[in-house]
Amino acid sequence: xxxxxxxxxxxxxxxxxxxxxxxxxxxxxxxxxxxxxxxxxxxxxxxxxxxxxxxxxxxxxxxxxxxxxxxxxxxxxxxxxxxxxxxxxxxxxxxxxxxxxxxxxxxxxxxxx
Length: 113
Prior knowledge:
Oligomer: single chain
CATH superfamily: Glutaredoxin
CATH topology: Glutaredoxin
Strand content: 15-25%
CATH architecture: 3-Layer(aba) Sandwich
Number of helices: 4
Low-confidence stretches: none
């Protein structure tokens, strides 16, 4: 089973999710998305796996800090904003096979293991 976590080590929820995975004996592929950008197609695929729209994976406060009006942008434009300003991506996101989940709260990861 391949497990990938889109991780921000400065985020307590992200660290806790990683700890849950490691506690289950899982060594996930860790993508520090602030360092290793996520592509447009990867974001689209993850959204499809989660059954979510782009605005559902955006950190509203961080978007406002970047002067991004999420209500005025289309889905594709929101994805482009995530790529340009990766800190607006809600985290952590864990992908297992063809499933993905936003781990807020971190225990959400258990839904796809």
